[in-house]
């Protein structure tokens, strides 16, 4: 059995640094969809165009480390 070399997917670390309270429901829903529930929580996601679009919506609430 031979192993196939698959390209390593780029991982992005996302940290919630501002509360979504006072922001539109769309922003709150996006934060939840990213997997963030409380301040200073960090999650790792695979970098995709969809994820980038979500991060663009809530760019003032999160910090992204590549």
- Low-confidence segments: none
Total beta-strand segments:
3
Strand order of the largest sheet: 2-1-3
What structural category arises from helix and sheet content? alpha+beta
Largest sheet: 3 strands, antiparallel
Brief account:
This protein is an alpha+beta fold and 66 residues long. The chain has helices spanning 25-33, 49-57; strands spanning 11-16, 42-46, 62-65.
Question: Helices and strands in order, then pairings?
Answer:
Layout: E1 11-16, H1 25-33, E2 42-46, H2 49-57, E3 62-65
Antiparallel strand pairs: 1-2, 1-3
Features:
about 70 residues, alpha+beta, 2 helices, 3 strands
Structure, explained:
With 66 residues, the chain is of the alpha+beta class. The chain has a domain at 21-65: Ribosomal protein L30/L7 (Ribosomal Protein L30, Chain: A). It is 27% helix and 23% strand. It has helices at residues 25-33, 49-57; strands at residues 11-16, 42-46, 62-65. A 3-stranded antiparallel sheet has the order 2-1-3, with no helix packed on it. The longest helix has 9 residues, at 25-33. The N and C termini lie far apart (34 Å). The model has no long low-confidence stretch (mean pLDDT 93).
